[in-house]
Specification:
With 791 residues, this protein is mainly beta. The chain is built from six helices and 49 strands.
Length: 791
């Protein structure tokens, strides 16, 4: 007989009432997602994807626990640590009843549970109230980040050695639905869901994540939106802090009979921390609105509608600093970038159905549509030279002097309207079939996306420190093309349990058609015939993992899967006068894992090895390139590393708790071929850029009475900014950086919680990137205070 152990107290926050938190696991200490927890007063919560949960109540109280495949059980909670065992029941999955409180009715069917080491739960997000995705995801081992603006507006994230640029090698999802603007046609994601409005974050790695696609080497990043509450919820969060930072987060929802709803507004704005020559705003204003409505037709069938929209105006630039100017003032921003601004709008519509078709068969179907429009109006050239001149100020003295000049000749500054519109839509479906010792999942996705690139470049003159337009360009005369893609994907996965063994095998098939229609720079009205490139290709991606449970609760595992990333619609690329066929990225990826969980304590140790036959690189402006978005072959590459995840409850005496969580990653990378291309002059044995050798994250909590204190430490070793080997060169590397964040919460009364946070407590300064175009700082120390009111 299987049991679920409910472990209360992990990372808890103790308010005026008693706050009970913990993690739901099965008999093998694997997390149980979407378990319902309902209190005697009608309020309740659900466990996250890592099994974690938290609720506040006046004790003693009765809590009823229910989860798929287990009998309900009511227990009396009197505070302290509580252990609840749920007995296995021989009934089939109920897609609606149990998943009704998940982020969406289909999320638990599209996405199976992940390990605790790969999830940042709702309670963990509340520890620091981060709005920067880089800070959130850094506590997960095997995940690499490269800061760009210090605010997290344009994330650069990779997994297990994949490229970081604009998350172009990840499947970016929200509630299991792909949400990147054009993942097949133009994968560089200049849009990322707003981290501050999310209730959780998942990273999916290893052989069992191949079903998400199309990128299967590193993994997937899944944002978890706020769930429709099972009872009345009205919540207002307000925060104010340094650099004019304010955040307002309002949620209201309820479930009444067969209907449930949620309405959410999130507004985040700041003046920015950079100091623009001559003064001006260097921050942003971002507003999210989301609505969900669910109708439960019967105990076995439900439909749900989700609509979200995001509006962003950010005064952000691609222009960094020269090394000398950075040393003088790392927060400085050149006068030449005063007009740089991103104007972006995103919307998503999802209509979902979940149903129980028979005692052991469930189905979920979602139709989705994502639209994204953005115009990043930013400095592109000075005196006819690319902004790459910043790397050699002495060799480009005349042009570099224009960066902070008060006056200039006409047309000295070229500002490009990087204007693009994206469309991504499709239908995905999944069947879950449980029979004896097999848990089988089969899925289908029919998808289409496109990027409409319609750009121009205006010219300006500096007059008295202000930029004045001298030549207005015709829209569509810089870049004028449409990249599009259509893809049909199928997958099947079987998770078989036999004794102490769990064997999971899967196969993904994908057929992809990519197309480019290019009108060049002389046909802005698109009246003539476009130059067309088109290619259709398919791929089979297999994966298998084997886990063996030892008697002491330790699990040994091995997994292997094929990594794949589709080539774009460009088709060919000329390198050193030689025309090359751009190939899809392919690799074979291995992982060996030891995992042990006992109560509140857990340990995971993973060795991974990715062997690329061909690594793809992209020529984006974000990487300091031309911005053509063309793909390059990088040839054979080896990436290997070690991931360690440790969590322990150092103390739990009923009045004080001391939880700790540690994540450690060590990575080695090596090009196995010599070539000259996107990464520069690469020699065999060179290391990949922007992959730090060592990353460490430590989170320590102190929970007592009405107050909780959390300290987070993140350390990244220095990393190369260009391919190379041997000792790091200061001019071509980032600095090692250790950041400490502090979060404090205090319960003023039953429904009011005060908070205070300090980011970069020690006010550390470091070059965190040299792309795009120059040295870039991390955000200096910032302080915020906030209040949460529930009614």
């Amino acid at each position: 007989m299987k049991h679920v152990t409910i472990l209360i107290g992990f990372f808890s926050l103790v308010f005026a009432q008693t706050t009970v938190s913990g993690v739901v696991t099965d008999g093998d200490n694997n997390p149980v997602a979407d378990a319902n927890i309902v209190l005697s007063n009608g309020f309740g919560t659900t466990s996250g994807s890592d099994g974690s949960f938290a609720f506040t109540a006046t004790v003693p109280t009765t809590a009823t626990f229910s989860a798929i495949g287990f009998a309900d059980k009511s227990v009396t909670v009197s505070g302290g640590s509580v252990s609840v065992e749920l007995s296995n029941r021989p009934v089939a999955l109920d897609a609606v009843d149990v998943l009704a409180d998940a982020a969406s009715i289909t999320s638990g069917m599209f996405l199976r549970s992940v390990r605790p080491s790969s999830v940042v739960s709702e309670s963990e997000l509340k520890q620091f109230n981060h709005t920067d995705i880089h800070r959130v995801v850094s506590r997960i081992p095997g995940v690499y980040v490269q800061e760009e603006d210090g605010l997290g507006l344009r994330p650069n994230i990779g997994i297990r050695g994949t490229g970081l640029e604009r998350m172009e090698k990840l499947n970016v999802m929200e509630d299991g639905i792909i949400i990147a603007p054009a993942p097949y046609a133009s994968p560089a994601a200049y849009y990322s869901p707003t981290m501050g409005r999310m209730q959780g974050l998942e990273v999916r790695k290893g052989s069992t994540q191949i079903k998400h696609g199309p990128f299967t080497t590193g993994g997937s990043l899944n944002y978890i939106s706020t769930a429709i509450p099972s009872s009345s919820l009205n919540s207002v969060d307000f925060m104010a802090g340094s650099f004019g930072k304010t955040v307002l987060h309002v949620k209201s929802g309820n479930t009444m009979g067969q209907w449930g709803y949620l309405f959410e507004v999130y507004n985040d704005m700041t003046d920015g921390f950079k100091e623009l020559d001559g003064g001006g705003n260097t921050g942003y204003a971002k507003t999210d609105v989301m609505a969900k409505v669910r109708y439960t037709m019967s105990v076995n069938h439900a439909v749900e509608m989700k609509y979200s929209m995001t509006d962003e105006i950010s005064d952000e630039t691609y222009l960094g600093l020269s090394d000398d100017d950075y040393a003088a003032n790392p927060l400085r921003r050149y006068r030449a970038s005063q007009l740089d601004e991103m104007d972006a709008d995103h919307s998503q519509f999802v209509l979902s159905y979940a149903g129980k078709l028979s005692n052991n068969l469930t189905m979920a179907v979602s139709a989705y549509n994502n639209e994204f429009a953005r115009n990043w109006y930013k400095l592109n050239k000075v005196d006819g030279l690319s902004l790459g001149l910043i790397a050699d100020p002495a060799g480009n003295a005349a042009a570099f002097a224009l960066m902070d000049a008060m006056d200039s000749d006409a047309d000295a500054y070229r500002i490009k309207a990087n204007n693009r519109e994206y469309l991504s839509s499709g239908v995905q479906a999944v069947l879950n079939w449980s029979i004896e010792n097999h848990d089988i999942q089969a899925g289908l996705r029919i998808h289409a996306d496109e990027m409409d690139r319609f750009q121009w470049e205006d010219r300006y003159q500096m007059v008295g420190g202000k930029l004045n337009m001298t030549t207005a360009a015709t829209p569509g005369t810089d870049s004028n093309r449409i990249d599009s893609a259509e893809a049909t994907s199928l997958y099947v996965e079987d998770r078989m349990t036999s004794g102490n063994f769990i064997v999971t095998g899967g196969l993904r098939y994908e057929e992809i058609t990519v197309k480019r229609e290019d009108w060049g720079k002389t046909d802005p009205t698109r009246a003539g015939d476009a130059s067309i490139k088109e290619d259709t290709f398919d791929v089979i991606v297999p994966g298998v993992s084997v886990e063996y449970a030892l008697e002491d609760g330790t699990t040994l595992g091995y997994g292997i899967h094929k990594g794949f990333a589709p080539h774009g619609p460009g088709g060919t690329k000329v390198v050193d006068g030689v025309t090359q066929e751009v190939k899809s990225e392919e690799s074979w990826n291995h992982e060996w894992t030891v995992r042990s969980y006992e109560g509140l304590n857990g340990l995971e140790l993973t060795f991974f090895m990715n062997k690329y036959d061909n690594l793809l690189g992209a020529d984006t402006a974000a990487t300091g390139g031309t911005g053509s978005n063309e793909l390059y072959n990088g040839g054979a590459v080896d990436v290997s590393g070690l991931e360690l995840y440790l969590r322990r409850m150092l103390m739990d005496n009923g009045s004080i708790q001391l939880p700790i969580e540690i994540a450690y990653t060590k990575t080695n990378t090596e090009f196995r071929e010599s070539f000259d291309g996107f990464w520069g002059d690469v020699s065999r044995g060179d290391e990949l850029p922007y992959i730090p050798e060592t990353m460490v994250s430590v989170n320590l909590g102190v929970n007592m009475d009405k107050t909780s204190v959390n300290i987070g430490l993140k350390h990244n070793s220095a990393a190369r900014t260009t391919a190379g080997s041997g000792r790091l060169d200061d001019a071509n590397s980032t600095d090692a950086l250790t950041l400490i964040d502090l979060g404090v919460k205090h319960s003023l009364q039953n429904n009011i919680t005060l908070s205070m946070g300090i980011k970069n407590l020690l006010d550390k300064d470091a070059v965190v990137a040299r792309r795009p175009y120059g040295a870039r700082p991390t955000m200096p120390r910032s302080i915020s205070v906030g209040v949460n009111y529930n009614f």
